[in-house]
Amino acid sequence: MIARLQPVGLLIGRVVLGIVFIAHGWQKWTGGIDATAEGFASMGIPAPTLSAYFTVLSELVGGALLILGALLPLVGLALAGVMLGAMYFVHLDGGFFSRDGGYEYVLVLAAASIAIGFSGGGLLAVDSLWLNKKGAPQAAEPAPAAA
Question: Pfam families annotated for this entry (predicted)?
Fold first, then answer.
């Protein structure tokens, strides 16, 4: 029963996490990249313009790819990197709890990004169509013996 529900559970997780990232990326995009970069600079984030573009691109495109279940390991690492950067540069001094400006929320987003990114995405993910159609590891071809 659990095996049958796993793809649905992973789909729900991917869609919800993807929507959260798209919403945050959209907020930064519509607020203006320059304004986002200025905000990043005021928080001491290095290369603020480059960081703003990387963050918005990661959140918008990464969120959409999460929903589709495509390129999940790469997307998971990119989104976790953005969240860990936010944790280090912005939220670490606020303590743990997000109500105090802490890192609780971004840490959960980073962990969820890694967990879903390396989950395989389930049968309802685009990655499952081309990475491993049956969901089982493929046996490696034995190497030819040296003569």
Answer: DoxX
Report residue 103 as tokens: 């890192």
Of 116, 104, 101, the residue nearest 65 (C-alpha): 116
The pLDDT assigned to 2 comes to: 84
Separation of alpha carbons 99 and 103, rounded Å? 9
Residue type, 104: E
Tell me what the mean pLDDT of segment 64-82 comes to. Answer: 97
Q: What is the DSSP string of 60-121?
A: HHHHHHHHHT-SHHHHHHHHHHHHHHHIIIIIGGG-S-GGGT-SHHHHHHHHHHHHHHTS--
* Average pLDDT across the chain, whole number: 91
DSSP structure class, residue 129: H
pLDDT of 49 above 90: yes
Cα dihedral 94, 35, 52, 59 in deg (nearest 10): 80
